[in-house]
Automatic annotation (TrEMBL):
InterPro entries: HD, Homeodomain-like_sf, Lag1/Lac1-like, TLC-dom. CDD domains: homeodomain. GO terms for biological process: ceramide biosynthetic process. It comes from the Eukaryota. The lineage of its organism: Eukaryota, Metazoa, Chordata, Craniata, Vertebrata. Coiled coil: none annotated. Pfam families: Homeodomain (PF00046), TRAM_LAG1_CLN8 (PF03798). Residues 87-130 bind DNA. Residues 85-129 form the Homeobox domain. This is Ceramide synthase 5. Residues 344-375 are annotated as: Disordered.
């Protein structure tokens, strides 16, 4: 273990030339530098944030939802208990293909359409209600807004906010202030809490991708803390927090059926996203990490890794911006942000595909209004957030 620790914390990787861990171990009295062991305090904080979230959703978000006439809708049709189908549903697939449908139809002596209907009803039983989604989005809105406000107020007083050269002056001997520590640890604790809560949150199709997203975010924040790149890291966090609360606000408006407000907030989110991720991030953040830092401290191994990750993030920004632009265009042209197909309740009149892969009611449905659970599409419509956009604050 000692050999592994020595290899992992190799000074020649983590620190600039002629700097050792011993140089950072004993600063002057009253001076503190970031240390990796500080990150241990994040785990109990993450548990605390998760507990606060539970209380917030129960005692604040839920009453707000009820005031907006958002209630936990019951599933109209429940799947008939069936041991064989339940085993297939939990162990093999929730959306059986034609081969599975044929096999189950013969095994149970059921019509294929009846088997399809059973799986559709069973999937609907696991789908979250609009109330659950509303509470989750309201919690994220409050937290993102709080962190963005705190970040702006804190950075407004910091010299590196106005002159990014200060991110590298006297590096890595930069003092860890209480405000910077609290900003970093709270952000990191929140993403750790998302790691925990993802197993109890709304289960969406992008679960593996979002888990990797949260893991990457935790790793990047932890890396920059251990490497004392907190100054530029705080700028990165603030830039990413600038648009996230608008996304959650648009979701809340959508769940409350304020469609025009939803569309306006989403377009506003898109504008802020484009400005912060395609203009401010490359011209402000990448400029200082790539060029100003090169001039002041010079490159070293972890510097190359850090900048490589930031450049990869910029590529993701471009991809996300393209996806967001498509949704914003539909909101402006069609007057409505489209439906979320990742976690909504499936329609009882949903298209059912026969064993040949064709829909025997396709022509009829093409000329009929869309209905979901006996209501029009305005009753349960939700925003289509591409899986890469749903939590866009990763860095």
């Amino acid at each position: 273990m000692a050999a592994l620790s020595a290899w992992f914390w190799n000074e020649r990787f983590w620190l600039p030339h002629n700097v050792t861990w011993a140089d950072l171990a004993d600063p002057a009295p009253g001076v503190e530098y970031p240390k990796a062991r500080h990150l241990l305090s994040v785990l109990p904080l993450a548990v605390g944030i998760f507990a606060v979230r539970i209380l917030f959703e129960r005692f604040i978000a839920s009453p707000c939802a009820f005031l907006l006439h958002i209630h936990a809708a019951s599933v109209h049709w429940r799947a008939t208990p069936n041991t064989v189908l339940e085993k297939v549903f939990t162990s093999i697939t929730k959306c059986p293909d034609s081969r599975h449908l044929d096999g189950l139809s013969k095994q149970l002596d059921w019509d294929v359409r009846k088997v399809q209907r059973w799986f559709r009803h069973r999937r609907n039983q696991d789908k979250p209600s609009i109330l659950t989604k509303f509470c989750e989005s309201m919690w994220r809105l409050i937290f993102y807004l709080f962190m963005f406000t705190y970040g702006i107020c804190f950075l407004w007083q910091c010299p590196w906010m106005w002159d990014t050269h200060h991110c590298w002056y006297n590096y890595p001997y930069q003092v860890l202030t209480p405000g910077l520590y609290h900003y970093y640890v709270t952000e990191l604790g929140f993403y750790w809490s998302l790691m925990f809560s993802q197993f109890t949150d709304i289960k969406r199709k992008d679960f593996p991708i979002m888990f990797i997203h949260h893991l990457a975010t935790v790793s990047l924040i932890s890396f920059s803390y251990a490497n004392n790149m907190l100054r530029v890291g705080s700028l990165v966090m603030c830039v990413h927090d600038a648009s996230d609360f608008l996304l959650e606000a648009a979701k809340l408006a959508n769940y409350a059926k304020y469609q025009r407000l939803c569309d306006f907030l989403f377009v506003l989110f898109a504008v802020v996203f484009f400005i912060t991720r395609l203009v401010i991030y490359p011209l402000w953040i990448l400029n200082t990490t790539l060029f100003e830092s090169w001039e002041i401290i010079g490159p070293y191994p972890s510097w190359w890794l850090f900048n490589s990750l930031l450049l990869v993030l910029q590529v993701l920004h471009v991809i996300w911006s393209y996806l967001i632009a498509g949704i914003a265009y539909k909101a402006l042209v069609r007057g409505k942000v489209s439906k979320d197909d990742r976690s909504d309740v499936e329609s009882s009149s949903e298209e059912e595909v026969d064993t040949n892969g064709t829909n025997d009611r396709g022509v009829k449905r093409a000329f009929s209004p869309k209905v979901e659970n006996g209501t029009n599409d305005h009753a349960v419509t939700t925003i289509t957030w591409p899986q890469q956009i749903r939590s866009s604050s990763s860095w």
